[in-house]
Amino acid sequence: MNCFEGTLTDPVFAGVAGFVFLAAINLIWVLRTQKFNGVHFYALTFVGGMWALLTVGFEAASSSAVCKLQWATLAWFGYGLLSVAWTLFVMSFVGSKMMIDKLWPRVALVLVPLAAVVFVATNHLHHLVYSDVLPVTGTIDQNTYIHGPGFYLLLAVLYAFVACGLVCLVKAFLRAKRSAYPLLIMLTITTLMPVLANAAYVGLGFTVLGQDPTSFMFILGIVAFSWLLATNKTIDMTSVGKSVLFDTMSEPIVLVDRRRQVVLTNTAARTRGLDKGQSATLNAFLQKLGRSEPCECGDYIKIGERDYEPRVQGITNPLCPDGDALGWSVTFVDVTERIAMNESLQAALKKADDAMRTKDDFVSVVSHEMRTPLTSLKGALSLALSGHLGELDGRMHSVIDLAHRNGIRLSRLIDQILLAQKMDLDALKLEHVTVELGQLLEDSLVENRSFASEQSVTLVSTPTEPAYIEGDAFAIRQIIDNLVSNAIKFSGKDSVVEGKIEVWQGRVRLSIQDMGQGIPEGMEDKVFGRFEQIPNSSQHATQGSGLGMHISRNLARKMQGDIFYESQVGVGTTFYVEFPLSLQVEQRLAESGERLASARG
To answer: Are residues 154 and 273 in the same domain?
Structure first.
């Protein structure tokens, strides 16, 4: 017997098939566009509903009573799958972990539909689902089923699953926010619709197209729920995330409409009273939004005891992007602590400047006041040492000579302090003339030979071509003298200090090499620092002011030069001073090169 015969031309089946087709399209759309908890159970609910609808359609279109009973039997698989899958979906959707994490609900998803079909299919053996008095009666268009106790047992099992879903929904209502109520109400209606329809069918004989309305009503319910799910943003992660982000931001945010009225605020704004509009400063600021005249409140506005930096973002009208804005989003960045910190910093800087100025004034006054009596002291000691005031015995001469040498050292220290102060204040004026660096090196070596001889150090220089630079001859000589005297002081006895000049790539490099104990790595800040000295085991380690290299580097840099060094502990140190080659010399060298090239050509 062919139970499909005549089904495709039956109007009832055509209507059912069209309904199932629309439900299938809805299912595909939901799976492609929506992501939510329990989506797989949701899809199985659709499958169960469509299965039940199709079997009902085939039952209505069949002309044989036997075929009608077969289709009615197969419909129970859809009813079982629909009930269990929907209940598991509800549990997953509302976040209930009461049973969804256990194994048996998933086992029930398979066993309940299969058990229902097997139980109904074996009705001819036990006659519990349909009575054996009148199992099937009716005309060619409709059957009337006499329900037995097994039928009501099946309903009780399926209703038990639906009841579990309703319990989960009640708990969800108790803990959910009001914004989720529409979604939960629709979920509850969808759950109750097939139950009520089935009860009306069993108790009152209510039908749709002469068939059991359960699956029809369920499919209608979940289609309606699908639409609500797509349009409702209650559980949409993007929408909820934006809402949470908006409401949990630490900075106050105020949404203002085109009438300059506050329409929405986040928690931070409400906590700080920015939603009440009671501040005249805030109202004045809001009235200026979107207008050409600038806000008179400045970069910051004070609301209550707090200072805020308002950051305004216009909200474009999607219907008219080039027209007036729908409103504005204003983020009020709290800058109270920043302003207080800036004020404290400014006060501290002013205090430090005042202290520095006072220190500079003190150093200047003390240095100048010491200079005059020190000059007289040095003159008197020099006069005494010369013998013009009488002969000095050996002991007296030694004491006066020591005082004279220390007076000279003190005079140099004062000169260096004043020079360093002038450079710090950018008050030092240097000449800019052409200087022959080799001659300045030779002069320095000559004047330091007596000091080198006292330390048993030999000074030598390597002959080179004349090297011209632009700078201040006195300042350059001061740099060279400092490098040479340092090399002598930090060299051992019977060692050699060598001076050398090289011209390389448009620059002149002067080097002073000693054979001392060397400088450890990482000591550059000490070498060129103010009042800093490198620890040294020699007897001269503590001599000097600690300003010489600091002054020398600053002088070199003021003349577009620089000082650096290379050192190896236990071997010695080489200090380099580099300056740009004089432009006039460079030009003459270029002209000479051109003449030589043309002569060769």
So the answer is: no
pLDDT tens-digit map of 456-497: 999 999 878 888 999 999 889 989 999 999 999 888 888 999
Instruction: Tell me whether residue 376 is in a domain.
Output: yes
Q: Which two tokens stand for residue 190?
A: 């969808």
* Same domain assignment for residues 129 and 35: yes
The answer to whether 123 touches 130, Cβ cutoff 8 Å, is: yes
Q: What is the CATH number of the domain that holds 524?
A: 3.30.565.10
In-domain check, residue 39: yes
**pLDDT of amino acid 543:** 56
Angstrom distance (rounded) from CA 82 to CA 145: 22
* Spatial CA neighbour of 489 closest among 534, 424, 538, 447: 538
Are 48 and 79 in contact, with CB atoms under 8 Å apart?
A: yes
- Between CA 202 and CA 148 the distance in angstroms is 12
| CA angle (92, 96, 99) in 5-degree steps | 90
Are residues 411 and 446 located together in one domain of the fold? no
Burial, 273: exposed, middle or buried (Cβ in 10 Å; 0-12, 13-18, 19+)? middle
Residues 310 and 386 in one domain: no
Which residues fall within 8 angstroms of residue 443, CB to CB, at 6 or more apart? Answer: 477
At 378, give phi and psi (nearest 5°): -65, -40
The answer to whether residues 317 and 381 belong to one domain is no
Q: Is 306 left (phi over 0), alpha (psi -120 to 50) or beta?
A: beta
Backbone angles phi, psi at 87, to 5 degrees: -65, -45
Q: How many residues does the chain have?
A: 601
CATH number, domain with residue 185: 1.20.1070.10
What does the pLDDT look like over 202-237, one tens digit per residue?
Answer: 777 777 666 667 766 766 776 666 666 555 555 455
Range of the domain at 269: 249-334
- Report residue 14 as tokens: 């055509």
Q: Are 187 and 169 in contact (CB under 8 A)?
A: yes
Examine the domain organization and report whether 355 and 218 are in the same domain: no
Q: Which residue has the tokens 């204040």?
A: 425
Domains identified in the chain, total number? 4
pLDDT top residue among 133 and 443: 443
Q: 511 by DSSP, 3-state: which?
A: strand
User: Is pLDDT at 103 greater than 80 in this prediction?
Assistant: no
3-class SS letters over 204-238: HCCCECCECCHHHHHHHHHHHHHHHHHHCCCCCHH
